[in-house]
Amino acid sequence: MGSFDIWWEGGCWEWDVAAGICLLQEAGGLVTTANPPEDLATAAIEDVRLGSRLYLAIRPAGPSATETGRQSQERVVREVWKRVRHLEYSRPGA
Q1: Which domain holds residue 51?
Q2: Which pairs count as long-range contacts for 9-16, CB under 8 Å and 24+ apart, including other chains?
Q3: Which positions are tagged coiled coil (predicted)?
Q4: What is the model's pTM?
């Protein structure tokens, strides 16, 4: 049995990830874009666009004494974004 805390991927098609995204979001996880924005510190962390082919998933997290579960997830997203390169995946014909 295995598990992941973070999953960063590019190039998958929506039919490869749709069910997993649904399950993760229903469980309280966060799924956003794999590509870091221009301003890491202040950019809004939005829900993933399913057809984007760029995915960063963070497991559900409970609150701590200093932050909510969502704040913890967003902090992890920003830390991942600091460390990854920009991925280039597009849709054929787009």
Answers
A1: 6-83
A2: 9/34, 9/54, 9/55, 9/56, 10/34, 10/35, 10/53, 10/54, 10/55, 10/87, 10/89, 11/53, 11/87, 11/89, 12/53, 12/55, 13/53, 14/50, 14/51, 14/53
A3: none
A4: 0.89
